[in-house]
């Protein structure tokens, strides 16, 4: 991780993302708390989260738009746009204004998809292929660290001074991200126009995911696990109430424990990717969730702490493995569409499982549901592990000799040659038309 942070260009991007992720972390929970405060309804507060997730259905369109423009200026514009779209929240005063929060939440969800898609391509441009796990691992470590303090800080700020300061801080975070990324100097050209019809261009990302064997297995396996992972959002409250016999506020303590595990997972993720490959790291992350869920079926606090630490470790492993795989196995001209489509294919089952879990916990014993989550995620992890050879570990670059031999030249001194970034592995399984346009784009 230190190696990638020594790169000045990535340090700038890292600082920008630190500002935007901090804004994101204080905003998400606070919007739902704001709605709850205005309406007194748990259902309307939960609908705020649904409003953020709903724009995932537009992921193919968002990815297509992202792929039509250079990454750096698009990232700057998207962050500035996100800051501006939060401004209507200053007009919220009472229950009659709740619709403004819903509209802003939906637009923010659209912005989140856009920023994720363009970020994947920007990292690919700035970082050599062999350092992609370190770059993704560094960002996941920060994200997990912010999960420890951001949501609680946002809710606390709202309770103390109201929504105006929260909105101001969030807007400042996104504005700072735009300003810092604007300092990057990246040689970019406008991507070539697509040569297929626009419906075919929209679906190119999904076709690539379906045709590339490693990506296909990753999405199927992780999607299977996601169908039940969301159950735990509701089950953890039953675990604390019925199992540990504690107040619901104790969930915050367990979330903090999970966040500590997330920090550990973020620090280890690059090493796991290098040793097990991207699909192997994803398999490890999904599999770790299995025994963690089963352990929560037995309500003992010490065992619950260990389980949540393990569950925390699993999340960065899955995200770093999946993000690195997408970046390495996707042609640059398709990366926005593939990244957006993969986010949608993972987030969709997760959103459905959160709602399903909320219904099931009222019908079945929460311990049986935890066991079900453990069995399904372990099976999904085994399916992924079986396909780990589809993305074997990358060879470790050979370090240069300590004392390189010099070839004397009486006329022209020898000058060091900068190390070229390692090329990303070629995309496999792209349909014929997309492959043709990719080769033409590469030949420009």
Automatic annotation (TrEMBL):
UniProt keyword Cell membrane present: yes
Record's keyword terms, sorted: Cell membrane, Membrane, Transmembrane, Transmembrane helix
Ranges annotated as biased composition (Pro residues): 394-403, 410-426
Domain Major facilitator superfamily (MFS) profile, chain residue ranges per copy: 1-190
Segments traversing the membrane: 12-35, 47-66, 98-123, 167-187, 219-239, 251-272, 279-298, 304-326, 338-360, 366-385
Top-level taxon: Bacteria
GO cellular component entries: plasma membrane
Keyword Membrane: yes
Protein name: MFS transporter
UniProt topology in membrane: Multi-pass membrane protein
Lineage: Bacteria, Bacillati, Actinomycetota, Actinomycetes, Micromonosporales
Classification via Gene3D superfamilies: MFS general substrate transporter like domains
Main location class: membrane
């Amino acid at each position: 991780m230190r190696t990638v942070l020594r790169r000045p260009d990535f340090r700038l991007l890292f600082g920008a993302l630190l500002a935007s992720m901090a804004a994101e972390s204080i905003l998400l929970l606070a919007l739902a708390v704001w709605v709850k405060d205005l309406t007194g309804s748990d259902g309307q507060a939960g609908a705020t989260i649904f409003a953020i997730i709903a724009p995932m259905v537009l992921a193919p369109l968002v990815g297509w738009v992202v792929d039509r423009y250079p990454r750096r200026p698009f990232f700057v514009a998207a962050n500035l746009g996100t800051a501006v779209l939060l401004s209507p929240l200053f007009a919220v005063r009472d229950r009659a204004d709740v619709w403004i929060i819903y509209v802003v939440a939906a637009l923010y969800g659209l912005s989140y998809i856009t920023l994720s898609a363009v970020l994947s391509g920007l990292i690919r441009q700035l970082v050599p292929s062999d350092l992609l796990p370190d770059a993704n691992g560094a960002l996941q470590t920060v994200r997990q660290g912010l999960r420890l303090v951001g949501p609680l800080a946002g809710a606390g700020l709202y309770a103390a001074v109201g929504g105006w300061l929260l909105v101001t801080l969030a807007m400042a975070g996104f504005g700072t991200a735009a300003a810092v990324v604007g300092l990057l100097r990246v040689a970019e050209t406008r991507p070539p126009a697509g040569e297929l019809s626009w419906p075919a261009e929209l679906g190119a990302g999904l076709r690539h995911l379906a045709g590339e064997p490693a990506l296909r297995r990753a999405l199927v396996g992780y999607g299977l696990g996601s169908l039940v992972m969301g159950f735990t959002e509701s089950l953890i409250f039953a675990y604390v109430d019925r199992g540990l016999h504690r107040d619901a506020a104790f969930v915050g303590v367990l979330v903090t424990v999970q966040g500590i595990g997330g920090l550990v997972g973020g620090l280890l993720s690059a090493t796991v990717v290098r040793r097990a490959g991207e699909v192997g790291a994803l398999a490890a992350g999904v599999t770790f969730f299995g025994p963690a869920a089963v352990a929560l079926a037995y309500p003992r606090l010490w065992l619950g702490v260990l389980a949540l630490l393990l569950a925390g470790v699993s999340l960065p492993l899955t995200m770093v493995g999946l993000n690195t795989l997408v970046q390495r196995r996707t042609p640059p001209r398709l990366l926005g569409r593939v990244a957006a489509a993969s986010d949608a294919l993972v987030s969709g089952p997760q959103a459905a499982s959160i709602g399903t879990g909320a219904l099931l916990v009222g019908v079945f014993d929460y311990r049986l549901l935890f066991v079900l989550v453990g069995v399904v995620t372990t099976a999904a992890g085994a399916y992924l592990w079986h396909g780990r050879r589809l993305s074997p570990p990358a060879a470790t670059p050979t370090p240069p000799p300590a004392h390189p031999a010099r070839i004397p030249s009486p006329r022209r001194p020898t000058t060091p040659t900068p190390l070229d970034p390692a090329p990303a592995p070629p995309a496999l399984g792209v349909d014929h038309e997309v492959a043709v346009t990719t080769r033409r784009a590469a030949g420009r």
